[in-house]
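FIELD: query
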Amino acid sequence: MENMDQHQSPLFRLPRELRDEIYGYYLHEDGGYITSQSAQRIQRLQRQDGRSIELGLSYACKRVATEIEGLALKKNAIRFSVLPAKHESVSRYSTAGLFDYLLERRAGFCRVMLSHAYWLVSPEAMQAVRTRHPGNTAVEKLEKTIIRDGNYYLNQGHLHHFKMLDYVVGDVILHDLIQIIAENTDFELLTSKEYDPDVDVGPLYVDPDANWDWRSEYSDIDDIGSISSDSDDGTTRSAFYSKETRDRVVEWRPAFWCMPQQQDLAEVAKFLPTSLQDLTHDDEGHELRLKQYFSAAAAAIHFLEHLGPKQRMHVRKIVIQEDHTSVGLPQTHARGLIPFCIENPDLRIERRIDIWRTDFIPKSEHFSADIPYIVSDVAKWISEARLLRIMGMPSTSFSLVLHGPTEEASQQLCDAMIKAAIWHEGAQEVARRTGSKWEDYYGIAEDFVDVIKAMVRGDIPARFEADMGEVWDIEEILRDSEGDEPASAREVFALENFEEPVGGWEAARAKYMEQTDWVDLEKSGRGLMEGLMATMNYLDGTDVW
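FIELD: result
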């Protein structure tokens, strides 16, 4: 075309619809595109085999370049997996691991603040929390409990525990509550007890009376138990925060699906003191820990955030493959996709969860003892998908697929989860019929059965990659069982019922772990941590190390 007017090319004598078909065939890649497996280069798309995308035709002719603009993104799915693909050095925290550690650290600091300022937790504060978590039944139950029982039981810094799938965001709820009560003018005085033991802020117990004003009473009553920097054995510990750092802890609210750089975490570490002493190791100086990654959903969100709005409108299909445990409540990360799905109604996102790799293999060592928790963890993926539509996700934009390594394994997963739900509902019904008391801790989770039924009915944008059948009739099942029901979830959800990885569970689990030497960790850890906190000391003046 370079020796003739480009508009005279035989290509342009064809109808535009036919030209688009030719372009689409030229641009199509089997398997679609993948992104660079480096968080710093995630914007770079490439073919499945790692080679660059063929763009020669667009360089040959300006008119072709104009006509195929955006077509490659329309014709090819973009696939994401966890990051980094190659794990960072085992002798130090990965960036993902440090981010997860700091999130846990923040939750601990919030508990300390709550232990000092729990008096400020009112029905109005809980109503404000509920507005941040639409459709979350755990928040609704927490609000009702505090209205009924008052706030005294928060004095140890812990929210009421409910065995509910929605409570996966418990630390988020706690932080939201702290942010809300921090707006109260008394919050500063109450929480100052942490770094100023001389502050007298009133009694540990108060009558939960809506009209009670603690400020009018505390001056005549000794402080008989507020948590301070003095521990029960008479020793003194460092304060968790200072007047200067408290507000920064309260304000730090990163999205759980963000992918911070180490320089970002350096700033956070200045007000969330971090020490290698928090790492666990055995008597021989070894530490065995799970490799930590950013989720595939976080990678997809990061990619879309840095893609121009015009380019984003061309994207049609995204496949997110979660194939490893990841940091920051990964079940919730699809929330970060909602704005992009609203922006582009033609975008379709499929998030795939390999339950063997995200849950079964990492937890296989103590699988039998932890079965109720493992079942609950699997169900949390589904429960979160239920909340997406309440939060604004368009009904046709997102789907969640839970699967195993093979078709047979996926069916095993489906059957076991449904059997667990049948057992849970049946056990509750038998308890009701016999007049026995059913305790929530007997089962999986309060909302477990409802969530599984909703998925089987198709009311939730989630499914097992298997034949799920129809919703069961518990009355019919109990009648047919003639009293021979399973005694516990362990009878329907055993590890031996699931396809074993090549080489066995132990060998598979070993690939997910990394062993570090404490001495090497301390040396190399200093390099990372000192880079983050070179000028930071503990609040009592002692060295970080």
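FIELD: remark
The first strand starts at residue 33 and ends at 35.
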